[in-house]
Design a protein that fits this description.
The chain is an alpha/beta fold. It is built from 9 helices and 10 strands. The chain has helices spanning about 40-50, 70-80, 95-105, 110-125, 140-155, 170-190, 200-205, 225-230, 235-250, and strands at about 5-15, 15-25, 30-35, 55-60, 65, 80-85, 160-165, 190-195, 210-215, 215-220. The chain has a 6-stranded mixed sheet with strand order 6-7-8-3-9-10, sandwiched between helices. Strands 2-1-4-5 form a 4-stranded antiparallel sheet, with helices on one face. It is globular and about 55 Å long.
Length: about 250
C-alpha cells in the first residue's frame, strides 16, 4: 500500500461531525487537490495525516504506516516524511529567514555545513535569493513569506508536501506564481503533493486529480476534465456557486 489512504474515517470537532465515514485514496507521485466549501473538513484531513488531530474512528495510512494510533514519539519519523505548509506563513517574527528554516532542521542532528546547504537549496527551489537569509519576516512581502514557509517545509526533504489553502490572501499574480511553484516542486523534487483549497481555478491549473468534499464525505474524485464535465449534482452546484462568487468578487 503506497500513498495516503483514509478508510471509514469519522472525525468530530466538539459536538460537530466533520468527517462521516470518509474514504479517499491519494496515490504517490501526483498533485492531488481536495476541494470544498469552508468548514467541510479539508484542513482536518491534512491534520489527521500528520497526527495533529485524531479521528474518532477509522484508519489512516501513510504508505506502510497506520497513523491513527501512533504515539507522539512514533509520529516524529512520519512527520519528517510528510511536511505541512500552513494556510498562513506561520514564521516566527523574532527569527530571521535563515533561523526560521533552520528551526525545523534542528531535530535532524545535521552538521552546520549540511544545514547551511539545505537552507540555500530550499530558498533556491522557491525562487528566492540566499541574500534574504538575514531578513526578518516583516521585511518581506506576504507572497515572499509564503515562499519561505514552503522553503522551510522542503528543507526537511519530505516525500509528501501537504498544502493548507496555500493561495489564501494573495493577489492574482502571486496566486498564479504559487500554483506554478507547486507543480514545479512536485516534478523537480519527486514529491507527492496534497493541496487543500476552495479555489477552482487553482485546482484546475495544478491538479492531477480532484476530490470534492461535501457533508463529511468525498462526493467526487477524478481528473480536472472529469470534474468540469461531471453531471453529479453536488459538483454542478459547487461550480455554479463558485462562478457566482468569483463574479461578485470582480464587481
Amino acid at each position: 500500500m503506497t500513498g495516503i489512504t483514509f478508510h471509514n474515517v469519522i472525525s468530530e470537532l466538539g459536538s460537530r461531525l466533520v468527517l462521516n465515514e470518509l474514504n479517499l485514496e491519494i496515490p504517490r507521485g501526483e498533485v492531488s487537490v481536495i476541494l470544498g466549501r469552508s468548514g467541510v473538513g479539508k484542513s482536518v484531513l491534512l491534520k489527521h495525516v500528520v497526527g495533529l488531530l485524531r479521528p474518532k474512528a477509522g484508519q489512516i495510512w501513510l504508505d506502510e504506516w497506520e497513523v491513527t494510533h501512533l504515539s507522539e514519539e512514533e509520529l516524529w519519523p512520519l512527520r519528517r516524511r510528510c511536511a505541512l505548509v500552513f494556510q498562513h506563513p506561520a514564521l516566527l517574527d523574532s527569527l530571521t529567514v535563515e533561523e526560521n528554516i533552520a528551526l525545523g532542521l534542528s531535530h535532524l542532528d545535521l552538521t552546520p555545513e549540511v544545514t547551511d546547504s539545505r537552507i540555500d537549496h530550499s530558498l533556491q527551489c522557491v525562487n528566492l535569493s540566499s541574500d534574504i537569509r538575514p531578513y526578518l519576516p516583516h521585511h518581506l512581502s506576504f507572497g515572499m513569506q509564503k515562499r519561505v514557509s514552503i522553503a522551510r517545509a522542503i528543507a526537511l526533504e519530505p516525500e509528501y508536501l501537504l498544502y493548507d489553502e496555500p493561495t489564501t490572501g494573495l493577489d492574482p499574480a502571486n496566486i498564479l506564481a504559487i500554483d506554478r511553484l507547486i507543480r514545479h516542486l512536485s516534478e523537480k523534487l519527486k514529491v507527492t503533493s496534497v493541496v487543500v483549497t476552495h479555489d477552482i481555478e487553482s485546482a484546475l491549473r495544478i491538479a492531477d486529480s480532484i476530490a470534492l468534499l461535501e457533508d463529511g464525505r468525498v462526493t467526487f474524485k477524478g481528473t480536472a476534465d472529469e470534474f468540469l464535465c461531471s453531471t453529479h449534482p453536488t459538483v454542478r452546484e459547487f461550480l455554479k456557486d463558485e462562478i457566482l462568487r468569483c463574479a461578485q468578487d470582480e464587481l
